[in-house]
Write a structure and sequence with these properties.
With about 375 residues, the protein is an alpha+beta fold. It is built from seven helices and 15 strands.
Length: about 375
């Protein structure tokens, strides 16, 4: 898949510097694709292997009658009908940008052939610790990413999750998916005082931003939301407009606040630093281009688009049912309480096998049905298993 077109809701259409056609090169190290034997036909290596009775024999079957390759003529007429001019051009399926799992984690995510639906640009993952469903929008390339690290320090009650919404390309979101959670864990490991965990998370965000800006030819940026579960505590952080919503006994509680230039405190911060905020097509933007005020990357606007997250820390209890992490492709069309109401029956039933994933998919489909053209990523994390 290629990078976003200029009609992105994050970037102003007039900002042509955010558009390019460079395709993402997916490293084999971050995917685990498998093909069954039915996909492969061995080549004959000897006359015996090519015999009519050999299972390795390659046969060209006679085309159906009146097909593009043949007609109701005799068998010998098939060659006359097999020509380039008669072959229908097959439409190339949409290329898929695969969300990349972190490198060197305790329990790395592997995406196999069954999780990828190339024609529709979908990515899905089901598991006991979390479920996620991503669907590409109008852009040629999917710019959303996600990451998950479970069983931290061999403890099944420790994990960290993230959803990343790229803009101006997928490179920043991909970098954040590979590095942010690991950087946070590294900072927490060096922190002796548990009360300073919020500061450790902040350092993880700042370090990831700094590392990305040192990359060659850096372009674009990414909004981020992360959820760390450690020793029964839930630590949620965000930079940008990805959002975390908690179900507390069926009531929705937003644990993050979107970072947009329209927020009074964010606008004041930007203007006090010498920037300006105005509207384009009824959307508030920084310097006339970017519609979010915090995130990873955005080197050309780094003076105003900071990577410092806002963090909320709470103790998980029996009333905390599940957590939704999602990109703004969901939240622009679906409200917080509405999302919880839709997801709760799938998460709180007696038979929960694969149910959280169905909730993710239902939420994505609802946003699409209401006209969302953005990439949409929804991750659902059952919390009672971490108590």
């Amino acid at each position: 898949m290629s990078v976003a077109v200029c009609s992105s809701p994050v970037f102003s259409p007039s900002s042509s510097l955010f558009c390019n056609n460079k395709a993402l090169n997916i490293s084999p190290a971050h995917q685990n694709l498998t093909l069954s034997h039915s996909h492969l036909t061995p080549l004959a290596s000897s006359p015996s292997a090519a015999s009519p009775t050999s299972p390795f024999c390659l046969r060209l079957l006679k085309p159906p009658v009146n097909s593009v390759f043949g007609s109701d003529s005799g068998p010998g007429d098939c060659d006359r009908h097999l020509s380039l001019g008669s072959v229908l051009k097959r439409k190339r399926p949409t290329r898929l940008d695969i969300p990349v799992a972190p490198v060197g984690v305790t329990a790395p995510i592997s995406l196999n052939a069954e999780t990828l639906r190339e024609e529709s640009g979908e990515v899905e993952r089901e598991g006991d610790e979390f479920s996620v469903y991503c669907k590409g929008g109008k852009r040629e390339a999917m710019e959303d990413r996600f990451s998950a690290i479970t069983n931290i320090e061999r403890d099944p009650k420790q994990a960290i999750f993230g959803v990343y919404d790229g803009h101006g390309g997928s490179r920043a979101a991909e970098f954040a998916a590979k590095n942010l959670c690991n950087n946070i864990l590294g900072e927490i490991a060096s922190e002796r005082n548990e009360s300073d965990i919020e500061e450790a998370v902040k350092r993880g965000y700042l370090a990831t931003d700094s590392e990305f800006l040192k990359e060659k030819d850096v372009k674009g940026g990414s909004c981020c939301v992360t959820a760390l579960i450690k020793y029964g505590n839930l630590v949620v952080s965000n930079a940008g407009d990805c959002r975390a919503v908690l179900s507390v006994g069926g009531f929705a509680e937003a644990l993050t606040s979107d970072h947009r230039p329209s927020r009074e405190d964010e606008r004041n911060r930007i203007e006090s630093s010498g920037g300006y905020v105005d509207t384009f097509n009824s959307v508030w933007r920084i310097q006339g281009s970017l519609a979010v005020s915090r995130g990873i990357g955005d080197a050309h606007l780094k003076r105003w688009v900071i990577s410092e997250p806002e963090t909320k820390n709470l103790r998980i209890n029996s009333q905390h049912e599940f957590l939704i992490l999602a990109s703004d492709g969901l939240w622009e069309k679906v409200g917080n309480q509405e999302a919880v109401d839709i997801a709760r029956p799938f998460c709180m039933g007696t038979d929960q096998k694969h149910k959280p994933f169905l909730a993710c998919k239902k939420l994505v489909d609802l946003s699409v049905s209401r006209g969302s053209l953005d990439d949409i990523s929804v991750m659902l994390i059952p919390l009672r298993r971490f108590i």
